Amino acid sequence: MLLEVNGVTLQYKTPRHLVTATYQVDFNVYQGDRYVILGPSGCGKSTLLKAVGGFMEPVEGSIRIRGRKVEAPGPDRMMVFQEFEQLMPWKTVYQNVVFPMKVTRKFGRAEAGDRANAAIEKVKLTQFRDVYPHMLSGGMKMRVAIARAMALEPDILLMDEPFAALDALTRRTMQQELLSLWDQLRFTVLFVTHSIEEAILVGSRILVLSPHPGRVRAELDSATFNFSNIDTGEFGAMSKRIHALLFGDTRASA
Amino acid sequence: MSSARQDIQRPELERELVDSGAIGDVERPLGIGERVLHNETFQRFVILLVLLVIWEAYARWLNNSLLFPSFTETVKTFWHDLQNGILINRTITSLRTLALGYACGLALAAVFTTFAVASNIGTRILSTFTAMFNPLPAIALLPLALIWFGLGTPSLVFVIIHSVLWAVALNTLIGFRGVPETLRMSGRNVGLKGARYVGLILIPAAFPSILAGLKIGWAFAWRTLVAAELVFGVSARSGGIGWYIFEARNDLDTPTVFSGLLTVILIGLVVESVIFRAIENRTVNLWGMQR
Q: Residue A254 pLDDT more than 50?
């Protein structure tokens, strides 16, 4: 077992309120999972991901990665954020990808360079290797962020609605690319989304959270679904099932 | 409600693409004329040229070199003093003091802002200090500086530090605060902490703001220095550019006053459009953080 989340309650303070984001959430992620946390806004899914990333501490329960308790952010859990600002504008694509490897000294100098080039090639950005982020499109920036996270070979990749800020066409391409990368490398990813369709497509396992505060509603298996059966009845049935779990009725979802 | 969709049958269409050869390449370089016309240096040059023509014309019409010497007269004096070394000596004296004061100001600003980002109380202290001292003209501290440090470089350095410190510290702090949360998190994600976090994430991310602070600080310092030299350059042994202006005014030698002012302006222009421009082109412009 790679990641164990046991009875985790998360709270954060705004200037006026103490907000409970999740309440006693449990789930386990195994090696090679494409584990999706799905829920409407307000279910604390991003907060949960931040807690796994080590950016906030649970008030109750525990988060363990490979048996070690998560206490601080670390390069064993690389995050990919929704915002494009996660790339450092003062570094080129290559420098951005190589940066975490340099800082953590996980790989030697030459190896880090090779790994960075390989990762950039995997996300098809070789010809933009020496370009600064401001000259890239949103989808390309996201590819750089993914390459940067993967090149470091973390235990788990944490993705916080990574494609939500992209246009629909780019989003679809990126979902396909993520799946084909997973086919090649079999990394473990914890993926947060609010789109039912994206959850079924991208995920192999789906944790459905209900809002206010976030509690576990269901954990489903979706490993059989992909782009080839997106039009089938089973896919639609799965989508309806999740919709019903989230909203308590059986109307079809978008 | 708008009216219902009109139910008119429209044929669908598919067509062969029109040959777009007639319009030429989709992307082609602009002609030399067009590029020069939009070049900033060229535009500046034209503005300067127009100003000089107006100056020369007005001075000739006035025909009183005691009140308002012409451009040619000023340049002649400027050239003369440049050749006999006076102007260069004065400028070097000024710039040396300026560099010392500017460097000390930056170092202190670094200390203050490090303290300010490290803790909340540090932030409060710095923002209170800047609120108090930033509006205080450095030159107003000069009499005090003269009592404390006597006539000479230390007093000048003191007022320069005062004029640099608050502007730079304030801008740096504002820049640090404006660093996006996502960028901070992706820095902490790879385990950056303390000085490495500040150096590798905060400073480059806040660089546009820091650079603005450096520019403002430079302008304040230069201004303060020239003004301070005008006040007490009288008794300093080797005066700076302010002293040069002051001396000339005492002799009612207006062309020399003008040539002194011209030097001040020229140095300002060089620092702004050569040094700072080069830094900008290599940093914030290259990174797309500033347009």
A: no
**Which residues of chain A have a CB within 8 Å of the CB of B182?**
81, 83, 85-86
Using CA atoms, how far apart are residues A222 and A202, in angstroms rounded to an integer? 9
What pLDDT, on a 0 to 100 scale, did the predictor assign at position B99?
A: 92
Residue A98: how many CB atoms within 10 A of its CB? Answer: 25
Contacts (Cβ under 8 Å, ≥6 apart) of B152: B236
For B184, nearest residue in chain A (alpha carbons):
A86
**What CATH number has the domain spanning A1-76+156-254?**
3.40.50.300
pLDDT of residue B193: 81
* Domains of chain B by start residue, with CATH: 94-282 (1.10.3720.10)
Q: Which residues contact B79 (CB under 8 A, 6 or more apart)?
A: none
Going by DSSP bridges, is the β-strand pair A60-65/A205-210 parallel, antiparallel, or unpaired? unpaired
If one compares B29 and A155, the residue with the highest pLDDT of the two is: A155
pLDDT at A250: 46
Candidate from A15-29, A60-74, A221-235 with smallest mean pLDDT? A221-235
What pTM, to 2 d.p., does this model score?
0.77
* Chain B residues in contact with A90 (beta carbon < 8 A): 204-205, 207, 283, 287, 289
**DSSP assignments along A108-153, one per residue:** -HHHHHHHHHHHHHHTT-GGGTT--GGGS-HHHHHHHHHHHHHHT-
**pLDDT tens digit sequence for A119-141:** 888 888 888 888 888 888 888 88
Contact A123, A147 (CB under 8 A): yes
- Condensed to tens digits (0 to 9), the pLDDT of residues A176-209 reads 888 888 888 888 999 899 888 888 888 888 888 8
* B185:A89 CB<8 A: no
Which residues of chain B make contact with A85, given a CB cutoff of 8 A? Answer: 180, 182-183
Token pair listed for B50: 């127009």
Measured CA to CA, the distance from residue A97 to residue A88 in angstroms comes to 10
Give the C-alpha distances (Å, rounded to integers) separating B234 from A25, B15, B143, B246, B262.
78, 85, 15, 8, 21
Given this model, what pLDDT does residue B4 score?
63
Q: Which residues of chain B have pLDDT under 70?
A: 1-5, 233-238
Domain boundaries, chain A: 1-76+156-254, 84-153
Task: Answer yes or no: do A55 and B185 touch at CB < 8 A.
Answer: yes
Please report the pLDDT score of residue A219 as a whole number: 81
